[in-house]
Each structure stands twice: as structure tokens, then as C-alpha cells.
Design brief:
flat, mainly alpha, Rossmann fold
């Protein structure tokens, strides 16, 4: 639930030729780094689900960095990878039909 959206988004954002173990490793390390002391104090081992979009962004950014590091990107490296990925993220906007 936390890892896969970020891995997919990071790989797609730079059109990775493949998804590697290294990408999953960096995703797991990034997720672990996002667990706060407050989360741990509350007994959570993951960030709050309410932060899933920001967590996915951080994981996607780290994965895209890894894609470029591994030389698997089909697209050139963006000047600001995080901003590029943020701009690609789906924004749920719902019309009010009432």
C-alpha cells in the first residue's frame, strides 16, 4: 500500500526500462526514513495513512533517482525530480452535482 504506488510512479516518471530490486530497496529505505518518532510513540511502524500522497511522492522521487543511477531511464533527468513527479501525480477533483 505504501511502496507500490511510489515505485510505479517513480519508474513511469522517467520511463524506466525495468523495475529492479534496487528500486524496491530504496523505496523500503525511504519509507522507513519517513516513520517519525510520533508514529513510533503511537505504535505505528508506518507513517499515518493520511500522509500517503506525500509518502508516495518521496518514494517515487527516490525511485526515479535510483532509475537514473542505474542507467535505466529513457527520459532525461529532470532538473527537479520531485517537482516533476508532483506535477505528474493524479489530483482527485470531484464535481459537486448537488
Amino acid at each position: 500500500m505504501y511502496i507500490f504506488p511510489g515505485v510505479g510512479l517513480g519508474a513511469l516518471a522517467c520511463e524506466s526500462r525495468q523495475v529492479t530490486d534496487g528500486m524496491f530497496l530504496i523505496a523500503a529505505k525511504t519509507l522507513a526514513s519517513l516513520v517519525s518518532e510520533e508514529d513510533l510513540a503511537m505504535g505505528r511502524i508506518y507513517p499515518a495513512l493520511s500522509k500517503i500522497r506525500e509518502v508516495s511522492l518521496k518514494i517515487a522521487t527516490a525511485v526515479a533517482e535510483e532509475v537514473h543511477h542505474e542507467g535505466l531511464a529513457r527520459l532525461p533527468r529532470a532538473a527537479n525530480i520531485e517537482a516533476d513527479i508532483r506535477a505528474r501525480m493524479f489530483q482527485p477533483v470531484y464535481r459537486n452535482y448537488v
